[in-house]
Amino acid sequence: MSFPQTILKDILLDQQRYLTNEKKSIRRDLLGEISTNIFDPTIVVITGLRRVGKSTLLRQIMNVLEQDSYYYCNFEDERFLDFKASNFSLLLQSCIELFGERKTIFFDEVQNISGWERFVRRLHDSGYKCFITGSNASLLSRELGTKLTGRYVAYTLYPFSFSEYLRTTNNPPTTTLLDTTTRANLSSLFSIYSKDGGMPEYIQYKNPDALKTVYDSVLYRDIMVRYNIRDERTLRELSLYCMSNIGSKLSYTGVQKMFELGSPNTVHSYVNHLEQSYLLFLLRRYDPSLKKQLRENKKCYSIDPGLAGLVGFRFSENSGRMLENIIYLELLRRKKEVYFYITDKKQEIDFITREGKAITGCVQVSWEMEQKKTKNREILPLIQALRDFNLQKGTIITSSLREEIKTDGKTIECVPAYEWLLRTDK
Fold first, then answer.
1. Which of 131, 162, 287, 365 could bond to 292 as cystine, CB 3.0-4.6 Å?
2. How does 126-152 read in b/e, with b if 16+ C-beta sit within 10 Å?
3. What is the pLDDT of residue 1?
4. 3.65.10.10, 2.40.110.10, 3.30.465.10, 3.40.50.300: which CATH number matches 5-157?
């Protein structure tokens, strides 16, 4: 059955008016990366959590283009409920009739329409430039890999980085000429950021209900409905458990016994859904053997410390765990291939980074380093890891300590998180 064209045109006109009434927004750092692909023929794919700012980023891309040179369609609109892939041609026809012929198309939350990838491929093959967003990594990657191989470039949008957060407070990010007053101000702002996180709507209005709505929407719409999950209680309890244990290792067997589930595979499936919907990330332990990497327990991190703090239970070590989460997210923004590492003496390194086959960096995260016992706990494993990977320099990221430590022929840089996060030599 054909989708009513009158409704299609109403939706398109309403959404066009929404674009016209765009409010001023904080420029996203990812825009600079995407700018290299704005005018080439590749399909640009932007993925990320709901309400993380993908639609706003699309509008920022539109501002780079000539006015009235593109179409825009957001499939989150509830009026698209009965829209099918077979209706895409009618959608394009309606765009042309309403706005004239244009060669650039923006599709927001396109994964809501099953079979979208065939139409996007046809558009691409016909000379159209396509920008698409989506909130499910699994669906998008599967469909992109099977139908659009070689035709697209993908980006992930995360919540506000610390530098983006500073722009919302009218404090231009800088690491040059940091005097005592500036450092104190940055430290204070970072303390707020580490608690509030970087979800744009929450940063703007400080309304906890905004975060709760995002969380509930992901669990219900992106997971329960999409994967036909009926056991809502177990999914919510498992998600709560993960959000309450940021930076801790996740044992599928242990969680299966805790929740009295039939199989660890159920835990694996639920956690995978949480990860593919961008609520959680799982960090693998580094091992030269891929089989061992896959077999070992993974560490769990949240997409946003503010969301984790709101949803999960708070513990005494919460500040250190949240700092660790923030650093992990920043490493992802910097396109690093990240692992955690355990030395032969069973000492843990929070993060190591790899390029190709070579380990390029070792990073420890510690909220405070004032006590000698804490210092040794962080430094000694780091020295061992530097030896293991034949590296000369390691980093310890703290809440405030700045110090350079030379020992055993190695250099350890202790640097405040607010300073490390603003560095441009990424």
1. 287
2. eebbbbbbbbbbebbeebbeebbeebb
3. 63
4. 3.40.50.300
